[in-house]
From TrEMBL:
GO terms for biological process: 5-phosphoribose 1-diphosphate biosynthetic process; purine nucleotide biosynthetic process; ribonucleoside monophosphate biosynthetic process. Belongs to the ribose-phosphate pyrophosphokinase family. It holds the Pfam family Pribosyl_synth. It is found in: Cytoplasm. Its main location: cytoplasm. It is an enzyme of class 2 (transferase). This is Ribose-phosphate pyrophosphokinase 2.
Length: 342
């Protein structure tokens, strides 16, 4: 007598045979460069894993040496390195770390670059000017990066400089949350862009808050120096919220704050994604008529906050951690464009 076998039993047997050879989801490893170890630690704490072992050191001739302290064969590797501090050294260290993981047979290497270096050099604005952001994109690809996660690129077309996937996260959801929690009269405030380039960012925030927006048109004589400013919009008897993607020497932000106070604004807040604060920035903020300067921790801010009581920091580590988790699990990242993960 023939014994009958069901389709379900056949599938179960085939599964049992295939299981030893079936491709496993590679395990995750997160390594930190030396630019922002605190942010990397917050990311792994959120993910519930340990930071990967890596030793970065310099030889006496200032060459960078990187030693990955654990196996990455077949792993899904994430390297956290921000474009801050010693930018060129940190960029070189990132490239070496990517290459070290790639030639050690990592399954995929993702560079998590919260603040993208050389992002302002994104076009030929004068004769013989380099497009360094494109060069950085090329060297990241050549070093072996398979994927880039970054935040608030200075110009979103930088994504097109890469032939690999780039996830450009926005600080906007975290900024909206901060405004609603910390500015009492935000419903009657006005959101202001300190230059025409940031108009799109500001209109998006103004729409989400359902408030008006204004624009400051500026002309530069040369880089890092603002010549003249013209305010377009009415800020009289209102709280003004200046929004920009980065502040370096803070000349633009401080000039804009003065212009807004002259035009009748009651208070001026400045909200910036990347607080670089180089050169005279801190003294300018201390002397400016700004209520608070709010930045994210894409760049280390501990020292800046000690030197300037006006600087406040929004933690975006949970957004980066969630982007890493979703990328690792093959889930959509678009939820993060309009929501803060809790």
């Amino acid at each position: 007598m023939k014994s009958t076998i069901t389709l379900e039993e056949v599938v179960n047997k085939l599964d049992h045979i295939a299981s030893p050879l079936s491709p496993r989801m590679p395990n995750i490893k997160v390594f930190s460069g030396s630019s922002h170890p605190d942010l990397a630690q917050k990311i792994v704490d959120r993910l519930g894993i340990d930071l990967g072992k890596v030793v970065t050191k310099k030889f006496s001739n200032m060459e960078t040496c990187v030693e990955i302290g654990e196996s990455v064969r077949g792993e899904d590797v994430y390297i956290v390195q921000s474009g801050s501090g010693e930018i060129n050294d940190n960029l070189m260290e990132l490239l070496i770390m990517i290459n070290a993981c790639k030639i050690a047979s990592a399954s995929r290497v993702t560079a998590v670059i919260p603040c993208f270096p050389y992002a302002r050099q994104d076009k030929k604005d004068k004769s013989r000017a380099p497009i360094t952001a494109k060069l950085v994109a090329n060297i990241l690809s050549v070093s072996g990066a398979d994927h880039i996660i970054t935040m608030d690129l200075h110009a979103s077309q930088i994504q097109g400089f890469f032939d690999i996937p780039v996830d450009n996260l926005f600080a906007e959801p975290a900024v909206l949350k901060w405004i609603k929690e910390n500015i009492p009269d935000w419903k009657t405030s006005i959101v202001v862009s300190p230059d025409a380039g940031g108009a799109k960012r500001v209109t998006s925030i103004a729409d989400r808050l359902n408030v008006e927006f204004a624009l400051i048109h500026k002309e530069r004589k040369k880089a890092n120096e603002v010549a003249s400013m013209v305010l377009v919009g009415d800020v009289k008897d209102r709280t003004a919220i200046l929004v920009d993607d980065m502040a370096d020497t803070c000349g633009t932000i401080c000039h804009a704050a003065e212009k807004l106070i002259e035009a009748g604004a009651i208070k001026v807040y400045a909200i910036l994604t990347h607080g670089i604060f180089s050169g005279p920035a801190i003294s300018r903020i201390n002397n400016a008529c700004l209520e608070a300067v709010v930045v994210t921790n894409t760049i280390p801010q501990e020292r800046h906050m000690q030197d300037c009581p006006k600087i406040q920091c929004i933690d975006v580590s949970m957004m980066l951690a969630e982007a890493v988790r979703r990328t690792h699990n093959g889930e959509s990242v678009s939820y993060l464009f309009s929501n803060v993960p809790y």
